[in-house]
Amino acid sequence: PKGKFGDPIETILELLELIHKEYFENNEKEKNSNNFCADKMCPSHSNFLLYLKEIKFCPTCSAKSTQKYDKDCFMFTISVSELLPLIEENETFTNYKYSLFKKAKYITQNFGQNDKIRLENCKCKIIATRKRLFLYKKFSPFLIINMTWDSDFPFLTDICKIYGLIPTTDKNNYLFDLDLEKDKKKKEELQSNYYLSSMILFGQRHYTCFFYNQEIKMWSFADDDKKKNFKTYHELITHLIARRSFPVGLIYTSVNIFLNEREEKYSLNEEQYLELYKNCQVEEQVDNEENTKLNKGEKNTNNNINNNVNRERKENERKEDDKKKKKNNNDDSDISF
User: Fold this and answer.
1) 263, 162 contact by CB (below 8 A)
2) pLDDT value at position 232?
3) How far, in whole angstroms, is CA 210 from its chain's centroid?
4) How far apart are CA 44 and CA 36, in angstroms?
5) Mean of pLDDT values over 168-181
6) Which of 159, 170, 181, 325 is nearest to 246 (CA)?
7) Per-residue buried b or exposed e for 53-80, using 16+ beta carbons within 10 Å of the residue's own CB
């Protein structure tokens, strides 16, 4: 499968489902309702459900199809392998500092460019189906994003790039389109600012997490029973990169948890990011040199082994030849005339 690190996210989804079932069992009125969780929703659906409407369309004609995800859509998935190619080598931090949402939206909108998907009412000769995700009805108080990686040992520079992309604050309409065609007044109900409250990480074959602790106004990093607090987001990200821990789950809240805090408390500036990225490049170069030495050492070891084997083989062949010559000489001395 594309994403191999879904365990914590799957656990969250399972917990949300259990909360939903418990609410269902404890509410007799809702049990008999065909519209369960539609009017009076359980804590899971009322806080985490994403009202998403997927519209596939042909850009050259009016053909389209609509599908709603409004039952158990508790998270949005972003593939890192699709994200990284969108980051140019010469792209500066200021250009993509808060653009994870925008780049994910771009990926969504360019869906189907090479896929052979034809809509039922599309008669175009060239198949070029696109997709857009619309948020309708209302925004979710919490947003869960699942980040899928293709490797459990990604490049250090790639990890740094993704941290540079992840916004600590952003707007949901950068990630989804807002369904305002019928009622433009609904913008207030649909549009929301999101604030990064916690992150699930994977590194060294181990899951960890961090969250913003509002009581002490610090970032708290949790590794099993160990906990460490960081005053600034820069200190936290520096620590995570040193551990080679990369994000697999992001949890945002619509409540401004950074209210009245200085920006340096909850974000990276350009100078900090570029320094981190430069350090990652140096670290990667050192790793590559060490790997080259190891590979060279293994090659030399293999060559030495092969040389020893060849020498031993030649020595054995020489001994066999000497034996044959000695035998022939003995045989010749025994011949009488």
Assistant:
1) no
2) 94
3) 16
4) 13
5) 87
6) 159
7) beebbbeeeebeeeeeeeebebbbebbb
